[in-house]
Amino acid sequence: MIQTVLLTLYQVIVPLSIPVIAGALLGRFKNLDTKPLLTLYLYFLSPAIILDTLATADISFDDVYKTLAFSLLNLFLLWALANVLGTILKLAPPELAGLTLVSTFTNSVNYGLPLVLLAFGQLGLDKASVYVIGQMVIVNTLGVYFAARSQFSVKNAVKSVFSLPAIYAAILALGLRALHLHMPHEVASGVAMVAGAYSPVVLAILGAQMVKVRVAQVERKLQSAFWTGLTVRLFLAPLIAYLGLTLLHITGPLFSVLLILASMPVAVNAVVLAERFNASADLVSRCILWTTLASFIVLPILIALVAL
Description:
Elements: H1 2-29, H2 34-56, H3 61-89, H4 93-104, H5 108-139, H6 142-147, H7 154-161, H8 165-178, H9 185-196, H10 198-212, H11 223-247, H12 252-262, H13 270-276, H14 281-307
């Protein structure tokens, strides 16, 4: 078991760490501005990898239904757990909102996709594509609701979803599959070339973002919320994901991919929602940093377990 974990650490985490470290060094010493890169990622790289993957993905409609069912079930279970724990800890509404964001939203897009590709190959990436699209929709709708229930607007949430180019790329790819059509070879080659740049660029962005995350000590009254958030994301989330996958009778490669994606560290964009809607941004920022660092140990163990 230890040998398998070390091998996974070497084969998966080491390659991933190179662009992350490069981004962190650029962010620390060259003050890398990630805003233009985020625009590149959101409006160019993300639609390209979604279109390239979904158009040719080895997935069935059964996979799609199971993935969407798991996404919703897992989200509900984590939301319920966060609310129960928040009630027990008697957290104020902002801290409860922060704990909910920490518990429910994972870095499945700019960390999860490259990880799955390295750990499970193209088949894993195919299985992950539907989950990632679902997460984009969930974050821009329910994510806003969790962060600011009093300020939530269904109209604005829906508008934010349809401002994402990746959604249109997914619709186009699924339309092509339904009609049994293919992109012209030259177009498909160009899209594939852009998609190939996705992993190194988004991982470098992650590294640059990590060094800019505020690491100030959270107030003493929030220490319990911080440790609770870490416990949920690092240890309870994989168990809940396993429960959900078992209840839905999901097996095989789809089981492995969804378990890993559901066990990723806290999503970096969770702090954006926390800052915007006063959902204890310090708590969320600190959880992002430490769950990401801890994931370099926890995720190889999980990958080794599902590979047994």
